Amino acid sequence: MELGSPQAVASHSGEDRSEESAVIAGLVRRAQARDATAFAELIGRYERMALSIAYSVLHEPTAAGDVTQDAFIRAWERLGDLKDPARFGPWLSGVVRNGAIDARRRNKLQPRSMQADPSQAQAVVASGRWTADPLDELSRRERHETLESALAELDEVSRSAVVLRYYDNMSSKEIGELLDLAPTAVDMRLSRARQQLRRKLGATGVFADKAAR
Length: 213
Hints:
Elements: H1 6-32, H2 36-58, H3 61-78, H4 88-107, H5 118-127, H6 134-152, H7 156-166, H8 172-179, H9 183-201
Helix pairs in contact: 1-2, 2-3, 2-4, 2-7, 3-4, 6-9, 7-8, 7-9, 8-9
Protein backbone atom coordinates (compact mmCIF):
# COMPACT_ATOMS: atom_id res chain seq x y z
CA MET A 1 0.00 0.00 0.00
CA GLU A 2 1.53 3.29 -1.11
CA LEU A 3 2.01 6.11 1.37
CA GLY A 4 -0.58 8.79 0.73
CA SER A 5 -3.03 6.46 -1.04
CA PRO A 6 -6.69 6.55 0.06
CA GLN A 7 -6.22 3.18 1.76
CA ALA A 8 -3.21 4.45 3.69
CA VAL A 9 -5.06 7.62 4.74
CA ALA A 10 -8.11 5.61 5.87
CA SER A 11 -5.88 3.22 7.79
CA HIS A 12 -4.09 6.09 9.51
CA SER A 13 -7.41 7.74 10.37
CA GLY A 14 -8.69 4.47 11.80
CA GLU A 15 -5.57 4.12 13.92
CA ASP A 16 -6.02 7.66 15.24
CA ARG A 17 -9.64 6.92 16.22
CA SER A 18 -8.58 3.70 17.94
CA GLU A 19 -5.90 5.53 19.90
CA GLU A 20 -8.40 8.25 20.90
CA SER A 21 -10.92 5.62 22.02
CA ALA A 22 -8.23 3.94 24.09
CA VAL A 23 -7.34 7.27 25.74
CA ILE A 24 -10.99 7.98 26.54
CA ALA A 25 -11.52 4.48 27.91
CA GLY A 26 -8.45 4.88 30.12
CA LEU A 27 -9.67 8.21 31.48
CA VAL A 28 -13.12 6.75 32.17
CA ARG A 29 -11.67 3.78 34.06
CA ARG A 30 -9.59 6.15 36.19
CA ALA A 31 -12.64 8.33 36.79
CA GLN A 32 -14.68 5.26 37.75
CA ALA A 33 -12.00 4.67 40.39
CA ARG A 34 -12.87 8.22 41.63
CA ASP A 35 -9.89 9.96 40.03
CA ALA A 36 -11.17 13.54 39.85
CA THR A 37 -8.27 14.66 37.66
CA ALA A 38 -9.20 12.12 34.98
CA PHE A 39 -12.83 13.23 35.09
CA ALA A 40 -11.77 16.87 34.76
CA GLU A 41 -9.95 15.92 31.55
CA LEU A 42 -13.10 14.22 30.26
CA ILE A 43 -15.03 17.42 30.97
CA GLY A 44 -12.49 19.38 28.95
CA ARG A 45 -12.86 17.00 26.01
CA TYR A 46 -16.66 16.83 26.02
CA GLU A 47 -17.86 20.15 27.42
CA ARG A 48 -18.41 21.81 24.04
CA MET A 49 -20.28 18.79 22.70
CA ALA A 50 -22.47 18.70 25.81
CA LEU A 51 -23.27 22.42 25.54
CA SER A 52 -24.18 21.99 21.87
CA ILE A 53 -26.61 19.19 22.61
CA ALA A 54 -28.21 21.04 25.53
CA TYR A 55 -28.54 24.19 23.44
CA SER A 56 -30.08 22.27 20.55
CA VAL A 57 -32.89 21.21 22.90
CA LEU A 58 -33.36 24.43 24.88
CA HIS A 59 -32.18 27.22 22.55
CA GLU A 60 -31.36 29.27 25.62
CA PRO A 61 -27.66 29.71 26.49
CA THR A 62 -27.97 30.13 30.26
CA ALA A 63 -30.29 27.14 30.63
CA ALA A 64 -28.01 25.06 28.38
CA GLY A 65 -25.03 25.91 30.58
CA ASP A 66 -26.93 24.95 33.73
CA VAL A 67 -28.07 21.66 32.21
CA THR A 68 -24.53 20.86 31.06
CA GLN A 69 -23.14 21.47 34.53
CA ASP A 70 -25.82 19.27 36.09
CA ALA A 71 -25.17 16.57 33.48
CA PHE A 72 -21.50 16.34 34.37
CA ILE A 73 -22.40 16.08 38.06
CA ARG A 74 -24.83 13.26 37.26
CA ALA A 75 -22.24 11.60 35.04
CA TRP A 76 -19.71 11.65 37.89
CA GLU A 77 -22.26 10.15 40.28
CA ARG A 78 -23.41 7.46 37.82
CA LEU A 79 -20.15 6.67 36.05
CA GLY A 80 -20.11 3.23 37.61
CA ASP A 81 -23.20 2.36 35.53
CA LEU A 82 -21.22 2.72 32.28
CA LYS A 83 -20.18 -0.80 31.27
CA ASP A 84 -18.17 0.12 28.15
CA PRO A 85 -15.76 2.99 28.92
CA ALA A 86 -15.18 3.58 25.21
CA ARG A 87 -18.87 4.56 24.91
CA PHE A 88 -18.55 7.51 27.28
CA GLY A 89 -19.41 10.07 24.57
CA PRO A 90 -22.75 8.53 23.52
CA TRP A 91 -23.60 7.79 27.15
CA LEU A 92 -22.91 11.39 28.19
CA SER A 93 -24.89 12.63 25.19
CA GLY A 94 -27.93 10.76 26.50
CA VAL A 95 -27.45 12.18 30.00
CA VAL A 96 -27.28 15.72 28.61
CA ARG A 97 -30.26 15.32 26.29
CA ASN A 98 -32.45 13.78 28.98
CA GLY A 99 -31.47 16.54 31.39
CA ALA A 100 -32.29 19.21 28.82
CA ILE A 101 -35.67 17.66 28.03
CA ASP A 102 -36.47 17.45 31.75
CA ALA A 103 -35.42 21.10 32.24
CA ARG A 104 -37.61 22.24 29.37
CA ARG A 105 -40.57 20.33 30.72
CA ARG A 106 -39.98 21.51 34.27
CA ASN A 107 -39.53 25.16 33.37
CA LYS A 108 -41.85 25.09 30.34
CA LEU A 109 -39.01 26.40 28.18
CA GLN A 110 -39.68 26.33 24.48
CA PRO A 111 -37.02 26.68 21.78
CA ARG A 112 -37.03 30.34 20.86
CA SER A 113 -34.90 32.96 19.18
CA MET A 114 -32.76 35.20 21.33
CA GLN A 115 -34.43 38.44 22.30
CA ALA A 116 -32.67 41.74 22.80
CA ASP A 117 -31.78 42.56 26.40
CA PRO A 118 -32.12 46.32 27.16
CA SER A 119 -29.38 46.13 29.79
CA GLN A 120 -26.98 44.75 27.17
CA ALA A 121 -27.83 47.62 24.83
CA GLN A 122 -27.23 50.14 27.61
CA ALA A 123 -23.86 48.53 28.36
CA VAL A 124 -22.83 48.83 24.72
CA VAL A 125 -23.78 52.50 24.66
CA ALA A 126 -21.93 53.19 27.92
CA SER A 127 -18.76 51.45 26.77
CA GLY A 128 -18.76 53.12 23.37
CA ARG A 129 -18.52 49.75 21.56
CA TRP A 130 -20.25 50.52 18.27
CA THR A 131 -20.34 48.61 15.03
CA ALA A 132 -19.11 50.39 11.90
CA ASP A 133 -22.68 50.55 10.64
CA PRO A 134 -25.72 50.15 12.96
CA LEU A 135 -27.72 48.78 10.01
CA ASP A 136 -25.18 45.97 9.61
CA GLU A 137 -25.62 45.04 13.27
CA LEU A 138 -29.40 45.09 12.91
CA SER A 139 -29.19 42.89 9.82
CA ARG A 140 -26.89 40.45 11.62
CA ARG A 141 -29.30 40.17 14.55
CA GLU A 142 -32.25 39.64 12.25
CA ARG A 143 -30.41 36.84 10.42
CA HIS A 144 -29.51 35.25 13.75
CA GLU A 145 -33.11 35.35 14.97
CA THR A 146 -34.36 33.92 11.67
CA LEU A 147 -31.87 31.07 11.90
CA GLU A 148 -32.81 30.37 15.54
CA SER A 149 -36.47 30.26 14.56
CA ALA A 150 -35.76 27.87 11.69
CA LEU A 151 -33.69 25.55 13.89
CA ALA A 152 -36.46 25.49 16.50
CA GLU A 153 -38.81 23.91 13.93
CA LEU A 154 -36.56 20.86 13.49
CA ASP A 155 -37.08 17.75 15.62
CA GLU A 156 -34.62 17.48 18.51
CA VAL A 157 -32.40 14.77 17.03
CA SER A 158 -32.07 16.56 13.68
CA ARG A 159 -31.43 19.85 15.47
CA SER A 160 -28.66 18.20 17.49
CA ALA A 161 -27.13 16.78 14.32
CA VAL A 162 -27.18 20.18 12.62
CA VAL A 163 -25.60 21.92 15.61
CA LEU A 164 -22.88 19.26 15.95
CA ARG A 165 -22.09 19.37 12.21
CA TYR A 166 -22.14 23.11 11.52
CA TYR A 167 -21.16 24.51 14.91
CA ASP A 168 -18.74 21.82 16.12
CA ASN A 169 -17.67 20.54 12.67
CA MET A 170 -18.19 16.88 13.58
CA SER A 171 -18.26 14.13 10.97
CA SER A 172 -21.35 12.01 10.33
CA LYS A 173 -19.64 9.08 12.06
CA GLU A 174 -18.85 11.14 15.14
CA ILE A 175 -22.38 12.54 15.27
CA GLY A 176 -23.82 9.06 14.83
CA GLU A 177 -21.79 7.72 17.73
CA LEU A 178 -23.12 10.48 19.99
CA LEU A 179 -26.73 10.24 18.86
CA ASP A 180 -26.77 6.45 18.48
CA LEU A 181 -27.42 6.64 14.73
CA ALA A 182 -25.74 5.07 11.73
CA PRO A 183 -23.70 7.58 9.67
CA THR A 184 -26.13 7.11 6.76
CA ALA A 185 -29.04 7.96 9.06
CA VAL A 186 -27.19 11.11 10.16
CA ASP A 187 -26.67 12.10 6.52
CA MET A 188 -30.36 11.59 5.77
CA ARG A 189 -31.39 13.73 8.74
CA LEU A 190 -28.92 16.44 7.77
CA SER A 191 -30.14 16.42 4.19
CA ARG A 192 -33.78 16.79 5.23
CA ALA A 193 -32.85 19.45 7.78
CA ARG A 194 -30.91 21.45 5.17
CA GLN A 195 -33.90 21.36 2.83
CA GLN A 196 -36.22 22.53 5.60
CA LEU A 197 -33.82 25.27 6.69
CA ARG A 198 -33.36 26.53 3.13
CA ARG A 199 -37.13 26.74 2.67
CA LYS A 200 -37.45 28.66 5.92
CA LEU A 201 -34.46 30.93 5.32
CA GLY A 202 -35.22 31.49 1.64
CA ALA A 203 -31.54 31.31 0.67
CA THR A 204 -29.87 28.43 -1.15
CA GLY A 205 -26.41 29.53 0.01
CA VAL A 206 -27.11 28.68 3.65
CA PHE A 207 -26.43 25.15 4.88
CA ALA A 208 -25.25 23.96 1.47
CA ASP A 209 -25.11 20.21 0.98
CA LYS A 210 -21.93 18.54 2.15
CA ALA A 211 -20.73 15.09 1.37
CA ALA A 212 -20.71 12.56 4.20
CA ARG A 213 -17.52 12.78 6.18
